[in-house]
Amino acid sequence: MENTSFNFTRITKEKDLDVLMEEIGDARVVMLGEASHGTSEYYTWRTAISKRLIHDKGFNFVAVEGDWPECYAVNRLVKGYQNAENKIADVLQVYKRWPSWMWANWEVAALVEWLRDHNHMKNVQEKAGFYGLDVYSLWESLDQIVNYLERTDGQVAEAARTAINCFEPFNRDPQVYAQATAFVPTDCEKEVIEMLKRVQSHRIYSDDPENEFNTRQNAIVAVNAEKYYRAMVRGGGSSWNVRDSHMMETLERLLEFHGPESRAIVWEHNTHIGDARYTDMADDGMFNIGQLARERFGRDQVKLIGFGSYQGTVIAGKSWGAPMQKMDVPPAVEGSWEDMLHRISTDDKIILSKDLRDVPELQQRIGHRAIGVVYDPKFEAYGNYVPTLIPERYDAFIYFDETDAVHPLRMKSRGATEPDLYPWNY
After folding, report:
1. N or C, which end of the chain is more exposed by having fewer CB within 10 Å?
2. Which residues form a coiled coil (predicted)?
3. Which fold has domain 1-65+263-426?
4. Is the pTM of this model over 0.85?
């Protein structure tokens, strides 16, 4: 590994992204990863890339690893819809559930500000959007459906209230619901599916041109969230696959909604956007949105860009729901992908996968760092490295030798117990 070498482009300024823009070409979907959910450089450079894609190549929206209802509030702000929140710091307060720092941070605020300014003088069809792909927001989505439909259609609202009433005995706690349905052959699947059917058959009129899509998406989230929470108690990779299937389906619906020529930017953890077929996830029957997108649209239409670093600091929690902390990230373990990049040079750099396919050391799986929202540096070497065939998992990789923690907005998070039932926290 000492003699390993390959071409790369040093990255110090936005102009250095030109090589990446050329690699992206005319792709319809660009997925931008991260090796943690709490590193400032990942957010900052994903913003720089997204600005280029939107401004130079006409991409239509950014879709992130966040919940639909909260991200739709941001979407309303950046598009200037009537009665939308108009202060960025205020709208980001909607991210209250742990880990709130993922989207309630100053780096995201900078992206939101740019999107709002970019959209200001454009017509509705030309405005770039901001959406959430994730599946966790069961109760928030149900509440939004009821609140809206009570003003427009009492009969359809009744179907939503029936679904909510089914969940009420579980005190809005997904873990309690999941565990209860594991042992008792009763659940709320029928109620949420009936609600979805009623919502899908209902015509919604509003001065928000996306309100119909928003309401139906909330109903789909409720259906898939219910399925997800039941899958958690079965263990294995089933809940992961439910979640990434939902994110892929949401991405497809957004592309369809925005038209046949629409183009999407996705922000998610490397474990979601890096093709799972080239990691040990595939050994357990797991897939992810990066793999599904390549299969759906073709590799020439999907560009997967991973991010990583050698050392630095990160925001994370010591356990699920624990207070956020700024933690030290130690130097990458010897023999890992990040260690290799550090040994080649300490430059921050862009690496294209086409320049890696003749590197002997990379024609096999090697460890590749992955830090989740739960993290303890003392145990990093025992569970934070994903065996990866690097040249195939990504189309490009952006490496930083030393990174800093993201800058959260100060707020308390609602407790979140969902992922206690499974080992992944990405």
Report:
1. N
2. none
3. EreA/ChaN-like  fold (3.40.1660)
4. yes
